[in-house]
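[Automated response] Your request has been received and processed.

Submitted sequence:
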Amino acid sequence: MTFNTKDLIDNSPLSRLQYATLMVCFFMNMLDGMDVLVISYAAPAISEAWGISPQALGVVFGSGLFGMTFGALFLAPIADRIGRKNMILLSAALMGTTVYITSFATSIYWLVVLRFISGLGIGSMLASTAALAAEYTPHKTKDFWVSFVISGYPVGAVLSGLTSGKIIVEEGWQTMFQVAGAITIVSLPIIYFFLTESLDFYIKKQPKRALEKINLILAEMGFETIGVVPPKASEQHKTSVQSLLGNEFRTPTFQLWIALFFAFATLYFLTSWIPKLATNAGLSMQLAIYTGTVFNVGAWFGIMTQGYFSSRYGLKKTIGIILILTGVLMAIFKIFIGSDAILYVFGLLGFGIQGGFVGLYAVSARMYPTEFRTTGVGWAIGIGRTGGIFGPAVGGVLIGMGLSLSANFLIYAVPTVLAGVMTLFISSKEVS
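Generated structure:
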């Protein structure tokens, strides 16, 4: 009888081991969200303390984003060789150490360097947790669980936003970095003891003591153990970007990259300019402060809703419709300007754009096989983040040109709709 982990997982209820793995991955993405946004929350205090310009802080923000891009493109693929758990440990160590050390920075130079290094860990963390979640969940609910794991990101962003104000005001911005870094460092033993390496990875890659490790996992999941490791499949794929561009994967890979590029461009435009956009739109300063939190709360509900409907009606249809409707909302944004109801519109925008683009992570986790799944997810995220670099930059130019708020939203409705349309046409047979 052929041993098939996919059939075992697809036809069995989730075990405690699988739930524990999913919860640890969710928690790590919470820390991801916290470590990404800690610099944003601390930026006003740093600017005031050091007397530096917004342009200088913009370089710091850009450095972190470049680090995340490089981490997704070049660090995350190593997980296909060393394992998802080892990469998650490495990513957490990079994030925690550098975020903590940032509290001792005394110049812009050190902020730029440390944010780049922490970005490497942040970028590879997301790809590795998404791949691991995909490999431990049944086919019919995989989209929901991958989306659930990634939804930890906005949860971490909201929680850190709610606590950072008090910490920074009472203790100083340095303390906020120390708290964020220490929490991430403390997560290392949690990862080591409660996160389980991918069963599929052990079978496909067969590292030392593979049979022993496979049987420990099988026993804990309530399955029968095996006497011998299944024959190792012949190496048909290279664990590199070349694998993504082979005949079978080339077209859907480019379609996914284009969709993510456009979705990230809009997402980062919104997240970078939301406070300014909110005040320009007529919100009081007090309400404008809450726009980022409302946006991320909306994002969490959007991600979870998308995951649920994707499991029922298919990824491509669900994501495509969500992104297209978000583009329509942005196109008609003008009618909400001047009303406090606009705060809820920002929540709906978070619901739509983040629910949509996170669904594209689930697409990448489904589309690629175990042998280069983290490479596929990492490159999808990395290409998407290049859109995240261009989105805020172009937005800044448009705002600087004096274009109205509604004109900016109308312009960015176009890439949002294009992302949705491209998603509908992704041609992978693995994605419903």
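Summary generated for your ticket: The chain is about 80% helix and 0% strand. The longest helix spans residues 16-50.
If you did not submit this request, please reply to this message.
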